[in-house]
Design brief:
mainly alpha
């Protein structure tokens, strides 16, 4: 039998965050919807598809799989039996040989079955290996952000974490940690999609990540996921949903136990209030965020994702976003300079975003020359980032509106023409 791996199905599962077991469950439900009787697939059935051992599932299964994925079976890497290379016709069976075969089969049935090999025991080393890969995903996000490659890689690793449970045994604590790691990878895919302006994908990743996080019981990753959801809705122009999602994060007990989490919750609330135009709420939230940050101890062990980015620079960055939304240009500029001064050098994407916001704050004060100079100081490679290119597009529009005949406007327009596509 041809056992070439089904790369198309494997890639689709990684992109959409499915493990073998969860895809089997989804297809079983779809079979029930189509036939009135739930399917009987399990994780091993899907692994047979992925390995190429099953090249063309049964008709009801194919229809259910197409319903789940929205793709025809052929696009998922399956091949109808008629497309398989033709095999030579089997020889005519000798009745004597057939009787001998049946006799041998009956005799072998009486023999004891071999004892199956003990399943692999999943332990701390497996968790540590996945957490090391998660740290690499976080580092890649800080350098580049928003890229489809980061999103895809994070989804592949999330599937790896869930699939590990299918291939071995583990205690409850380790299983909870596996779900937490899978949720962390999926939340990184969610953040990459938000940053890349792929909002439909971000919403799908949020739904998947929040389910995994609930199964893990890990409050830190639940905080991250719902805090990201608040940012997603803020970018979508849905401030009420943004406040509600961020409140889920802020009301978790971890935000009360650890002031660093509490500070991040308040700071993101300030950015949301800025989009509403609520100056009092912005001022109050930023005050709470700073007070909590001042109380946060440095020697408390925390997840790598929050340790890697949140501190004074990110608080100033969120304050910058809030004051820009309010049109408080001078306050926004002050926060931009503070954020850039405290920003670690490896956070290239965050530096480009803060610089683009600084240019907008300078433009809002009528300082055309420094605004254009600041915008042009952003590295060319960063301009390809969807979020940054969008910010610079708005900057150019505002510049032409307020000073259409200025030589600084002509300089910027020429710069835009020469910018990389």
């Amino acid at each position: 039998m041809d056992t070439t791996r089904n790369q198309a199905l494997t890639a689709w599962m990684a992109e959409h965050g499915y493990s073998s077991n969860t895809l089997a469950d989804a297809v079983n439900r779809a079979v029930g919807d189509l036939t009135g009787r739930t399917g009987g697939l399990d994780g091993s059935s899907v692994r047979d598809w992925k390995a190429g051992r099953v090249r063309w599932p049964k008709s009801a299964t194919r229809a259910a799989l197409e319903k789940v994925t929205g793709l025809p079976a052929i696009a998922l890497g399956f091949e109808p039996r008629g497309r398989a290379p033709s095999a030579p016709a089997p020889p005519q069976e000798d009745p004597v040989n057939r009787r001998s075969f049946l006799t041998a089969t009956a005799a072998s049935a009486a023999l004891p079955l071999p004892t199956p090999a003990a399943p692999h025991r999943i332990g701390a080393s497996d968790i540590a290996r996945l957490q090391h890969k998660f740290a690499a995903v976080v580092a890649g996000d800080h350098q580049h952000g928003g890229m489809r490659g980061i999103e895809t890689r994070a989804l592949e690793l999330a599937a790896e974490a869930v699939d590990l449970q299918d291939r071995g045994s583990a205690g409850q604590r380790v299983r909870s940690q596996l779900y937490a790691v899978a949720a962390a990878f999926t939340s990184s895919a969610m953040w990459a999609a938000i940053d890349g302006r792929r909002f439909d994908a971000a919403q799908r990743h949020h739904d998947r990540a929040s389910r995994l996080a609930r199964m893990s019981g890990d409050q830190a990753i639940q905080f991250r996921i719902w805090s990201h959801a608040g940012t997603l809705y803020r970018h979508l122009g849905r401030p009420s949903d943004a406040l509600a999602a961020n409140d889920v994060a802020r009301n978790l007990s971890i935000a009360r136990r650890d002031p660093l989490f509490g500070s991040l919750g308040h700071a993101r609330h300030a950015a949301i209030h800025g989009t509403i135009g609520d100056r009092t709420a912005v001022r109050r939230s930023l005050g709470h965020a700073q007070e909590a940050l001042d109380r946060a101890a440095d020697d408390v062990p925390r997840p790598v994702w929050i340790e890697a980015f949140y501190g004074p620079s990110e608080l100033d960055s969120l304050a910058l976003a809030a004051h820009l939304a309010l049109g408080n240009w001078s306050a926004a500029e002050a926060h931009a300079h503070r954020s850039l001064a405290a920003l670690p050098p490896h956070m290239h994407r965050s530096r480009a975003i803060a610089t683009a916001r600084l240019a907008r704050a300078q433009l809002g004060q009528g300082d055309l020359e420094p605004a254009v100079s600041t915008a042009m100081s952003i590295p060319r490679e960063a301009i390809r980032h969807p979020r940054i290119s969008g910010m610079l597009s708005v900057f150019g529009t505002r510049l032409r509106e307020c000073a259409p005949r200025s030589p600084h406007t002509r300089t910027w327009t020429q710069y835009e023409r020469e910018a990389p596509a």
